[in-house]
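Practice problem: predict the structure.
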Amino acid sequence: MKIAFGISWNDSKKGQLLAAVGLSLGLLFASLPALGESMALATSEMVDVIVRELPGAGSAPEEMVEDLGGQVGRHIDLIDGFTATVPKAGLPALESVRKVHSVTRDQRVHLLHEVEGYDASLPTNAGSIFNTTNAVKARDLWREGITGKGVDVAMIDSGVVPVQGLTVPGKVVNGPDLSFEAGSDDHRYLDTFGHGTHMAGIIAGRDAAVGAGKENGDHDNFVGVAPDARIVNVKVASHNGATDVSQVIAAIDWVVQHRNSGGLNIRVLNLSFGTDGTQHYTLDPLAYAAEVAWHKGIVVVVAAGNSQFGSPALNNPAYDPYVLAVGASDTKGTFDTNDDVVPDWSARGDGLRNPDLVAPGKSVTSLRAPGSYIDQNHPEGRVNSRLFKGTGTSQAAAVVSGAAALLLQQRPTATPDQIKALMKSTASKMPVADAQAQGSGVLNLKAAAKAPTPAAVQTWPRATGLGSLELARGSGHLVMQGPDKACLAKYEADKAAAAATETVEDTTATVEDAATE
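Answer:
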C-alpha cells in the first residue's frame, strides 16, 4: 500500500482525495492485527524445534515454517519429521497446521561418563582390557579365529580420535558428523569429549603390533573385545558431551538406512547413552528409533543406566524390552564370577524391565583422547600417556557390543532376537542376592560360542514412537518447554488415522577411513 504526501487541501479534487485517504486509512487500520503479528514474528526469539507429521502431510508444514520466517533443517524419516528453526511466536501457528502431529523444542541431552582415580601403586590394573576380555572369555573365541572380522559396529557417541589402538587401516570408518562441531575442519568426526574413543577401544581396539592370531598377548598390548570388527563412527556429541535428541534419532536413522551401503555390514549398534524419560516405551520416539534398528537386523546394545537419575528404572531407550539392556559388574580383578558383584550405581530395573545381563563396567581401562574435555578435567583417570580409566554401564555396553560382533561372525545369519537369547541363556549367574540387578548373569562368551543358536522370537508390543519427544528427554535437558504438553492427548486423537512406518531405503554411503585423518 502506497501513502501519498503533499496533497493540497485547496485542490479541486480534495473531496475525492479525502475519500481516498479515508479508504486508505481504513485499510491500514484493518491490517494492523496482521501487521502486529508480523512485527511479533520479526522480533521473536528463534528456537530450534522438531516437527512431526502425520501421513499425507505433504509440504504444508515446511511451507508454514518458511512463511513464518523460519528455516527447515534435517528431515528424519524414522519419525516422520524434520528439524526447523522458527520464531517462538510462530509456534502456535505451526502447531495448528493440518497433519502436524506435534512441534517440540529440541533441547540437549548429555553423554554420561564417570571417572575414578587410578592408583599407580597397585601391582596390577584390575580393570585392564586384558583382564576385561579374560573375564568375559573373549580370548577363548580368539583362539578359534573368532575376532569379529567382517562385522561392523556402529557407535553413536562423541566421535573417535585416531590414537594408537585405533589406527590399524580400516579400523574406523566415518559416517556422518551430526554434532555441533561438524562445521569445524579441526573437530569433524573427532572425539573432543573423550567418551567415544574410550568406547571404541573397548569394542574393537587393536594395537598395530598385535597381528592376527597373536591377540592372546599380555597387559602391555591393547586388544579390545572384537579386535577385527570395524567401528562406524557416527558423531553426535561435542566437547562437553552435549547433543540434541533430534541428532541421536537422526543418527539411528542414518545407521538403519546405510547398514548395508557402500561396503558396510552394520550388525551391531552401541548406545552408551540414556535419559530418564518415563513415558511408556511403545510411545517413546527414542525407544521407537532403537527398536526399528533392532527389527531391521541390528543388535542394539544399550547402557542400562547409572544411578545419577535417582531411580532404579532402566534408562531410555534401554527400557524397551526388545533391545539388549546391559548393566555393570565389578570383577574384583579376577576371571572367576564367584566374587563378582553389581555396583550400587548400576541401574537395577523396576521389576518389570530389568537388565538382560551384566558385563564388566567398574574401572575399565581403555584408550585416552588426549586434550579432550574429560582428559583435561579428570586427570585422575589417566593410567598412562595412552590409557584412561572409566566406570559405568556405558563401558559394560561397549563390552557386550564387542561380544555381539564375535557371535555374529561365528553365526552370521543369527537374528538380533537369537543373539540376545544366546547371551542370556549362557550367562553366568553371580552368587548375590540381588538377582534383579544382574538379569541373566555375567556375559560368558565361552559358553555362548559352544551353545546352539536358540530359536528365539520376541513378541512384545511394537513401539509406535507417537509419544512426546519432550518426555523422551526426561530431565536431561536445559529447559522444559510447552509445545509437547498436549502431545499424548493429540496422539490418542490421531492414532486411528496415523500409521507409524518402519520403511527405510538403503542409499549409498560415503565412508572415510578415520585412520587417515
